[in-house]
Automatic annotation (TrEMBL):
Keyword DNA-binding part of the UniProt annotation: no
GO annotation, biological process: proteolysis
Any one GO CC term of the record: extracellular space
Residues of the signal peptide: 1-16
Identification of the protein by name: DgyrCDS3209
Length: 359
C-alpha cells in the first residue's frame, strides 16, 4: 500500500510538471465578432487552455492547445458561437515527436537560418565575434549564471566613448524559439554592415544582444518532445510539484499586479516574490547599472504580432497605466510596426501591454 502511494505520488509529480501531449489537438480560429473574442479569452483565462498565438482582434488567427478530455466541450462551444476553426494538429505528441526526429537527423551545427541549441548558440556567438566590423569592438560578457550554471551571455558591439545603448533580448520564454532566431539575424545584420541603415546605426549607438535570457528553460525545451512547449525557467518551487517562474512576470516593477498567477503550476506564475529568480536578478541589476545609457530596449517574443509598450498593469482606478512619455514610445512603436507591415504585408497591433492584451 505504501509503495503504491509513493508510485502514485511520483506519477502525479511527473505529470504535473510535464504534460504528455498524447491526443492533444492544436486548433486555429479566426474571430469575426465580439462574442468570438470573448470565447477565446474565456478559453485562455477561465479554462486555462494553452495559447500558442493569442488574438485580440478580428481577422487575426488564434492558435491553442486542447487537451484530449476537453476536445468535445471546446468543439461544442466553438460551434454554438459560430466560431470556425481548423485543426492544425490532431495529435500534438506525434507531431512533436516527428519534428524532434527530423532535427535529430540533421547535423548539429550553428546556423542563422535554423533553430539552434543553447550550446550551438554559444559557439555561434564565438563565430560572430570574428565578423566584428573594424570600426567597433565586439565583446562577450556573462552577466550571471543560471541555477543550472549556464551563462546569461551578452554580445556587445561597442566603441570606447560610452555611447547610448540599444538592447535586444529574446528567449525569456523558453519555447518561443523563433525569437532568438530573429534576434541572431538582427545581430548578424548589424555586424555585416551591408545595409546603410545598419551602418548608420552602428555609427551612433552601442548594441547589446542577449540572445537567450532563460538558458535553463530554453535548454529544457530542446531535451524531448514532451518538453517542447516549456515556457518558464526551471527553478523548483518549494511546496509544489511544479517547477518554474514566468520570468517576464517576475521583475520588480509592479510585480504581481495584473495578468499574473500566484499558482506555481501556472505558465504565468510570477514567482514567490518580486525578482525571486536568479535570471531576473541578473538582468535587472545589470540593466540598472547601465540604465541611463539605454535608449531603447526591445524584448523579442514570438506569440503574436504586436508591439507592446509599457506598461502591462492597471493603476489604482483600474485604468491601464500610461508612462509620461507614452506618445513618444507610441511613435517609435508605430514606426517599427509600419516598417514591418510595409515589408511583409502583415498586421501588427500597437499599444501598451495592458490596453492591447488585457483589455
Ligand atoms: C458572430 O459570428 C457568428 C458567425 O458568423 C454568428 O453565428 C454569431 O451569431 C455572431 N455573434 C454575434 C454576437 O454577432
Amino acid at each position: 500500500m505504501q509503495t503504491f502511494n509513493v508510485i502514485l505520488m511520483l506519477f502525479a509529480a511527473v505529470s504535473a510538471q510535464q504534460p504528455n501531449y498524447e491526443g492533444y489537438q492544436v486548433l486555429s480560429a479566426i474571430p469575426e465578432n465580439d462574442s468570438h473574442l470573448k470565447l477565446l479569452k474565456d478559453l485562455n483565462v477561465k479554462d486555462g487552455l494553452d495559447f500558442l498565438k493569442i488574438s485580440t482582434r478580428f481577422e487575426t488567427p488564434a492558435e491553442f492547445l486542447v487537451p484530449r478530455d476537453q476536445i468535445e466541450n471546446v468543439f461544442e462551444r466553438l460551434s454554438i458561437n459560430g466560431l470556425k476553426y481548423n485543426i492544425i494538429s490532431s495529435n500534438v505528441a506525434e507531431d512533436l515527436k516527428k519534428s524532434f526526429q527530423l532535427r535529430n537527423d540533421e547535423p548539429r551545427v550553428f546556423g542563422l537560418d535554423k533553430y539552434n541549441t543553447f550550446e550551438d548558440i554559444l559557439s555561434g556567438l564565438d563565430d560572430l565575434l570574428l565578423k566584428c566590423p573594424s570600426s567597433a569592438s565586439c565583446v562577450l560578457e556573462d552577466i550571471g549564471l543560471t541555477p543550472e550554471n549556464k551563462p546569461i551571455r551578452l554580445f556587445k558591439i561597442v566603441k570606447p566613448s560610452q555611447r547610448k545603448i540599444v538592447w535586444f533580448d529574446s528567449a525569456i520564454h523558453a519555447r518561443e524559439w523563433l525569437a532568438p532566431a530573429t534576434n541572431l539575424k538582427l545581430l548578424d545584420a548589424i555586424l555585416s554592415q551591408e545595409d546603410p541603415n545598419a551602418v548608420s546605426l552602428l555609427n551612433k549607438y552601442d548594441f547589446y544582444f542577449l540572445i537567450i535570457m532563460n538558458p535553463d528553460g530554453y535548454s529544457f525545451s530542446w531535451e524531448s518532445p514532451d518538453n517542447r512547449l516549456w515556457r518558464k525557467n526551471r527553478t523548483p518551487n518549494p511546496g509544489s510539484v511544479c517547477r518554474g517562474t514566468d520570468l517576464n512576470r517576475n521583475f520588480d516593477v509592479n510585480w504581481m499586479n495584473d495578468g499574473t498567477s500566484t499558482e506555481p503550476c501556472s505558465d504565468v506564475f510570477g514567482g514567490s516574490s518580486a525578482a525571486s529568480e536568479t535570471e531576473t536578478q541578473n538582468v535587472q541589476n545589470y540593466l540598472r547599472s547601465i540604465g541611463s545609457r539605454v535608449i531603447a530596449l526591445t524584448s523579442i517574443h514570438s506569440t503574436a504580432q504586436m508591439i507592446l509598450l509599457p506598461y502591462g498593469h492597471t493603476d489604482s482606478n483600474e485604468e491601464c497605466a500610461i508612462p509620461a512619455d507614452h506618445e513618444k514610445q507610441l511613435a517609435a512603436g508605430n514606426a517599427f510596426a509600419d516598417a514591418i507591415e510595409n515589408t511583409y504585408d502583415t498586421i501588427w497591433e500597437r499599444g501598451t501591454g495592458c490596453s492591447t492584451i488585457c483589455k
